[in-house]
Amino acid sequence: MRVVLPAILPGVFTLLRMNFIAAWMAVLVAEMVGLRDGLGAIIMMGRNLFNSDLIMLAWSSSGYRASSLTACSSSSATGWCGGGSEP
């Protein structure tokens, strides 16, 4: 257990990072369909007003936050291997 867990940990964090981003996009789609508040509603308002800047700001800010959160946890958990799952 002492050898296997450190060897697979960077790959696990890469997998978590990709799945977390996909799950976050599913949450945004659900907000677009069913809620009046939230980031999905802001994206839909930008779509209805033909405001592509608002749409890009909402998508990029949510993607950046999700990516930086998982990258930070990965680098703190696997600091011994040079930054975790970053290429």
Features:
mainly alpha; 77% helix; elongated
In short:
Helix content is 77%, strand content 0%. The chain is mainly alpha-helical and 87 residues long. It has one domain.
Count of strand segments = 0
Number of helices: 3
**What is the gyration radius calculated from CA atoms?**
17 Å
- How would you sum up the global shape? elongated
Structural class based on helices, strands and sheet pairing: mainly alpha
Mean pLDDT: 76
Q: Give the fraction of residues assigned to helices.
A: over 70%
- Are there runs of 5+ residues with pLDDT below 50, and where? none
Strand content is under 5%
Distance between the termini: 25 Å
* Pattern of helices and strands: HHH
What is the total number of structural domains? 1
Characterize the largest beta sheet: strand count, sense, and whether it forms a barrel. none
Written account of the structure:
The chain has three helices and no strands. The chain is mainly α and 87 residues long. The protein has one domain. Helix 2 runs antiparallel to helix 3 (52-77). The longest helix has 31 residues, at 4-34. 11% of the residues are buried. The model has no long low-confidence stretch (mean pLDDT 76).
Layout of SSEs?
Layout: H1 4-34, H2 39-48, H3 52-77
Helix pairs in contact: 1-2, 1-3, 2-3
